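Two entries, shown back to back:
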Amino acid sequence: MPGNIDEFELYCQSEPPEARESLGPVRQLILDAVARLSEGRVHFYLIYHFGGGAVAKLHLGAKQRVDITFVTGEDLTDPEKLLKGSSSVRTIKVTSAAFLEKHREASNDLERQSFALISERFDGFEHFITLRPDQPSP
């Protein structure tokens, strides 16, 4: 419909002009990896979610570098060591288009793992199973 603007376009409005070029391919990678995701904006992030759970967050980090953040990061299997961070949240720092292309399959796998964890915790009524800090993920 003319005049409608999606979440990605709204996000890019507050970023430098080259943001669309940097974020677009990464956004498409996320959407292609898991077709059942919805897109939204929260603060400085584009959120890719299932139900109420964030599967991945996309944003421009320091020096306008693209970051993909996983709330489920510490529970993901990452043989290529793409995830950075020491808390439960982990981030892939996309340094270039070549980096993205080289690690496309590994990144897709992390997104699918995150989706699987979020969908396991989702009860179908927009509620999530709450875990204690000492309780492992299901």
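entry 2 starts here
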Amino acid sequence: MTTHERSSEPAAGGAAASAPRGATSSGHLGVAAWIGAGGESIAAALAGDVARDVDERWRWTMHAIGGERRSAAAAWAERTGAAECAHLRELVRPGVALSILLGREIPGDADLRHLLDGDRRVAFVGAAPLTLATLIALGDRAARLDVVPSFLSSEAWRLAQPIVADFRGDGADARVTTVAIQMRGTPGESTLDALLFDAAMVAVSLTTSIESVLALRQSPSATHEPASIVAIARCEDGMLLSLDVADTGGVRRAVEFVGSAGVCVVADDRIEWRDPRGATRERHVLTPPVDAVRATVDSLAHLAAVRSGGTGNTLRAAAALAEAAKLSARTGNAESPARALELAARP
């Protein structure tokens, strides 16, 4: 079998069909930022190492910056000429189309609804996963939420889509039987819940028919030990999904497809398709992100390029899968994401 050749250069983000609210005639997008606990490193990168990209390539204009980390907010505001804010709700002002919230904390539902007023968007950067209850309470507004870093917005995942499409449709009897999703993180930078949510986002992007999930969780008995969770999900069409998550080993994300066309791996450092006998049909070596900050910057770059939300249903499905997995780890029983969604929607 001849190995196909594909370019490993990311495609440039195309212009949107119409300028979003907060976009100037030059195409710049009005952005506000709030720096919470745990958001200092990415704020320093956006204000320092990648500041030129933020302005020239991403075409972001910073209008307002505030947060609990006042010194970081003040330094960024001074560098960009943005107004300093003392309160989260002050991010909502004329010209702002996107608010980015840096840090582990999620604002309350009332504050989120305020930030999403009109057609504004909110991006959570490095935050704890959104709960089902919050996503349901936000209703249609949830479609204007983004969560980064996300493997779905990584360079590897974007470049792999034509290859994955070929793999999943290679022949009349083509079928993917198993998908194995692996997420690793860095202690102190990546929480187990956030990594599980990222894995769940990948899972629900591949199928909408997850029936049940059975999970086991390993909690650390000492401060130096990692936390991990492994879950197996069954889909209505018989496909199996595995989610293997641990908060150690540094940033490493990989998805392996197993099916009639062989094995296809999409990872931060490579994209590879091997046929059933192990022969390489296609392989590309990539430069992986060196840490969580770089992975976050890559996701934000994609967000800047596409300038559109629309992930509300995916977020709810991912939250339902993640919560079902955590419940299963506690009960020892298989749990249903649909049931988790139903329970969370009850008044």
